[in-house]
Structures are given as structure tokens and as C-alpha cells.
Amino acid sequence: MTTRNFRIPFIVIILTIGIVLGIQIEKVFSDDNLHKELSKFEDIVSFTQKYYVEDVDTPALIEAAINGMLSKLDPHSVYIPANQMDDIEETFKGEFDGIGIEFQIVNDTLVVVSSITGGPSEKLGIMSGDKIIEVEGKSIIGISNEKVRQKLRGKAGTKVKVTIIRLGVKEPLKFEITRDKIPLYSVDVDMMLDNKTGYIGISRFAEKTTEEVEKALAQLKQKGMQQLVLDLRGDPGGYLNQAVQIADIFIDGKKKIVYTEGRRSEFNEEYYSSKPSQFEKMPIIVLVNKGSASASEIVAGAIQDWDRGLIVGETTFGKGLVQRQFNLDDNSALRLTISQYFTPSGRLIQRDYKDKRSREDYYSEVMNRADSLEGDNLYHKAETDTNRKVYKTNAGRKVYGGGGITPDYMLKSANLTELTTYLLKNDIFYKFVLKYLERNKNNIQNKYQNNLEYFTKDFNFKDSDIKEFVEFVKTEDLKFKQDDFNKDKKYIVGRLKALIARNFWKNEGWYSVLMSVDDQVQKSLSLFKEAKDLANL
Fold first, then answer.
1. Distance CA 397, CA 372 (A)
2. Stretch 312-328: mean pLDDT
3. Is 15's pLDDT higher than 90?
4. Which residues are tagged catalytic?
5. What backbone phi and psi angles, to 5 degrees, belong to 334?
6. Tens of pLDDT along 377-397?
7. What is the model's pTM?
8. Arithmetic mean of pLDDT, 238-246
9. Strand ranges for 291-332 from DSSP E
10. What is the DSSP string of 63-109?
11. Residue 498: enclosing H or E segment and its boundaries?
């Protein structure tokens, strides 16, 4: 079982090396033939607008034409409409304005999953399980996710009134919340897996990722960390400079981390380690999977090429293209591939896309891909039948280009059954846990107080609880399959327990439980000898 999932659709993920403001597309080109073709396009739009049998949404036609043009390029050159730009930039900027809650719509009701630490909702005492039923005196029963954002987000300093129903409290509670800047962290969790092994999970490479990682490392060092698991599973990438800085923390001296090459020479750049760090000699294992892309592959590739640590998991996504953003007058943007990136040994990580019929085929190929080997792959025998080009690590080990980073120790993620996939898709786990906590919240709180370690080791569901869950699933319009349930029982029970832990201890509780049943994490704990030997530590 693995705990990391895709957090952002690949179609919006970029590896950015610079943002050029206010550049018009026309300025990129100078060929006379292009102006003739643009004139032809303008004529077609004009004729359609004037003479088509129905009224025409001209902006929609233009955007469709842009997307059609980009579909003839690579899968990562994309047009971003103006109405999507704020959300996308927010993801990488690392903050937004709002009331500071994580929420879920359950049976048409907005339920608070948790209040973000340090945010305005937490300061007012808004709790996990609270149900927001009114905003500014108006019912929001049946509200959509998008409408929640519209009603609860707003400029820092503005106020919003909400009405909440809380378990055990007879009358509705009314709060006036002053919106504030809410941080979006790219380090999901940092924790100790045992008395000497630290764990850091990175969800994306945003503006402040290096700062967050350095803070996490310092805290773990104080807790006795002597070796590290760096989890990049499901991390779709982000900023190139952040990937370089993260790799630099673990790679000593002045060593090449990544370089880029494009058709235009100004896009050719090289990046080296330069900043001394106390973690350059610490044993490290990097976890990757099919969802590890772009900046994640830069970090994993540099560590692998310098034989600095052990890469564990599944072959990565295979995105080795660099995009630059060109902002347009209407606040939309073009993200255009301008170069390719290469690992220190010279590997191009980008997998082939030119023989794919569509972008959908390109993305679905990864999800359908099955690694041929499980277990030790230190000398990369798993790729002996490949046509991919061979390269050498610093120690002379064979590695291969043109298809992502293949791990040094391969361990597949568990394939979830149709039953469990349905349970996840329809929030059945969370719905059940809400009902469970209505009866058991006070008992759990009284028994475990604030002791997460005690809860993780001691708490177990009774057989009657599991039977109750099965009956609950059967009421959700699904043909229950006992074989599917038996196959995924470890995952199902672990996720239910993790959701309960999250109610009391937020992300720390969630990950503490899931790590204990995560096969890839647990296997990593037994591989540090190999990681040390590989790095000559």
C-alpha cells in the first residue's frame, strides 16, 4: 500500500525557469509566411462570426483554435485560460486568502475536515467535524466545491459570518471570521519513522519548498535523525530552481545537478551544487512512483547519477521538458516548451510522445505501465531488454535515458480493487468515520488524550466495527464483493484509522498511521545499508 496520490493534474504542471511578462505571441515570430497564415485565420474567424447559422462565441472559438494548435506540439505546451490562472499561480505561490479550513461536502453538507494550523478558523476554535450550514445568514445546504471557494475565500482582512452545527452542542454556533493569508505547504509532513530515521514528504516544488525542507531537516535532526526517507511519490514537479536547491542540500562540492538544452542557445543552462550542508553525508532513500515528474525527477536523477542515495519504488513519469510562461493581455497565458533537461550523466528523462495519438494516450500510458521487476535493481538489469540509451553513474553503474528514472530497488504500489476505488471516489471512508466519531469521539479523546504515538500503537477497530463498515458500504448502492474487501482489508482498515487520527492530530496523525502500513516506506527502512554502501558512507 502507498499513501501518496496525484495532487494536481499533470496538464497544469510546469518546470519553470523564468516568467516573461507582457510578451505577445506575435513578437516571437518574424517569418512573412506566418503573417499570411495569421491573416487567413483572421478571415475565417470573421466569416464565421458574420455568417454562421447561429450566434457564435468568438472567444471560445479562438481558445479552441489555440488548443488545437498546441496539440500538434508536445504534451506539456499548454494554454491556460484567464479564469484558471489565479488557482494555478496560487498553487505555486504557496498561499491564498481565506478562512483556513480543509473541507469536504458530505451528503450536501459542508463538513470541516480540519482547520489549518495558525489560520483564522483554528484561532476561533472551529473544529474537525463541524458542519457549516449558513454563510452570511443564508443556507448553503447542497453547495458545490466551487461555490464554497467563492463564498469563503476573499481578501485578507475582510469578514464572513458562518453558522455551524457541532456534535454535542444543542444550538447552532455563530462565528464571524476575519479572512487572512493561508499558507499552502509543499512539505506535507516531516516526522520520525523510528528513533533514527526521518521522513519528509514533498507534494510539489513551489516558491518556498526549499525553505520548508530546510526547516523540516533541522527539526528532525534535533529529534535524533541519522538517516532520511525523502518521499517524492505523486509529486508532479514545479519550479526548476527549487529542485536544484533541494538536490544541493544532499550533494557535496560543485557537481552538476541538471542542465537544459533548447533550439535557441539562450535556453541552454547548467546548474551545480554550491551550498555546503550538514546533510551531504547523511544516508538517504528517495521514494518515487509513476506520479513523480519533472522537478521530482531532477532530484531523483541527480542523486542516482552521483550514487548519493538509493532510489526506491516505481519508474517515474518521464517529463524532461522545460516550459516558459508567456502572459497574455487578457490574463491568460501560454506555457511553451523551450528546452529539454538532462541529468548529470547526460540522460534525457522525457519519454517518447511523438507516436501517441493524443495527449490522453500520453498520460494514460503511464498509469497502464507495469514495471517488469520487483526487488534489487542496483545495476539496472530490469532495463536490459530496452532500446533506451545507456549512461553511467559516477560509480560506473548503468542507467538508462528516455523514459523516466527507474529505481535502484523496485517495489510496486498495490493495485486497489474496484470496490476500494469506488469507496475512495465516493468518500465512503470519510462518511463512515463521521458516523463513527459521533459515538466514539469522546471515548477516544479521553483514552488517548494528546498522545498520537499511543493511539497509533494501541487503537484497533473491533470486529463489530468492521462489520458495521461493511453494512454501511452495502447501503451505498454498491454490489459488495467480499473477495475485493478481503484483498484490500489492510488498506481499508488503515485508511479508516488514519482518518480518525487526522481528526485529532491533523496531517501528523494521518501520516503516522499510514506510514505504519505503507509497504514501500516499511521496505525502505530495511535498505539503508545498501544506501550507505552505494554512497560510500
1. 19
2. 94
3. no
4. 294, 305, 319
5. -110, 125
6. 998 887 766 778 899 999 999
7. 0.86
8. 96
9. 310-313, 321-327
10. HHHHHHHHTTS-TT-EEE-HHHHHHHHHHHHTEEEE--EEEEEETTE
11. helix 489-516
